[in-house]
Amino acid sequence: MHLLVTGGAGFIGSAYVRALLADPSPDAPRVTVLDKLTYAGTLTNLPAGHPRLDFVHGDICDAALVDRLMADADQVVHFAAESHVDRSIEGAGDFVRTNVLGTQTLLDAALRHGTGPFVHISTDEVYGSLDTGSWPEEHPLAPSSPYSASKASADLLALACHRTHGLDVRVTRSSNTYGPHQFPEKIVPLFVTHLLEGLKVPLYGDGRNVRDWLHVDDHCRGIELVRTKGRPGEVYNLGGGTELSNRELTGLLLDACGAGWDRVAYVADRKGHDLRYSVDWSKARDELGYRPRRHFAGSLAETVAWYRDHRDWWEPLKRRGAG
Ligand code: NAD
Fold this sequence. Notes:
This protein is 41% helix and 18% strand. It is of the alpha/beta class and 323 residues long.
């Protein structure tokens, strides 16, 4: 079996690829990664020279290249995206291009070649903000940022491709993900690497925004369940089960780095900042047996230790473009 993985040099895509390649069974898939290597992607995330891995440096909007790769693939797992909300507020063009146009380019090619399942990786942010309770998959989409609006557009195009043309599309919508190899612009790696460098960390507004945290290994396990056991045309929420305000998370990261609250700089709130995200992941639990296995406190400590031990990984990335 041959899997095309887009965005496989980024944070979650590379964790997914490393997990697939670590599987020693004879029927483990061969993987082709298609990645543009934007500021967020790096080959240092992938096991160079692995016999079951091919890397193609390219753009998911390049229809000819995508067509050629799709012709040779049995299935697709589509991670490639512009993924940082703050950058989408600065400028939405790249988000619309990659997240919307790039997704449609892949869907068109998958349709031509009958490639499926096509697992489209999306985010809980497409639902917008909610005060209480958790969103089920059928909740209407109400994205707030250009990032989440572009992801919602891509979700709808993917689902429309199933409904209209019958392509085996499956969509995952997941919580905020943390773990090793995350580009140091998102809150966990940004704060940890700033603290390790002796800098202050920028906390938005009053820090009361709440996010549900999902370890990258659990996220990848959920994606694999959707790919192998999910149903065509279905959406699966994948949650982590640990809701924290940004202020609570900051306190945990300060403690883990041996720093105090004097290292926090309060900055103006993000424009349009969603207050709370929370997905109801009972569908993935009941249908696929999904359940996050990672204990948050231990996994956060392990993540902090990884950044402490891998300055050679993040220092060059931070110099080349962290926010
Ligand atoms: P990331 O920014 O770390 O990685 C994105 C990867 O896509 C990079 O390797 C980049 O080079 C590549 N890429 C970007 N534009 C491309 C293009 N035009 N063509 C080919 N490759 C391109 O992102 P991530 O955090 O690993 O997120 C992966 C997916 O998961 C995204 O679709 C994101 O929306 C979704 N997601 C992320 C989170 C999270 O908390 N990080 C949570 C839920 C869902």
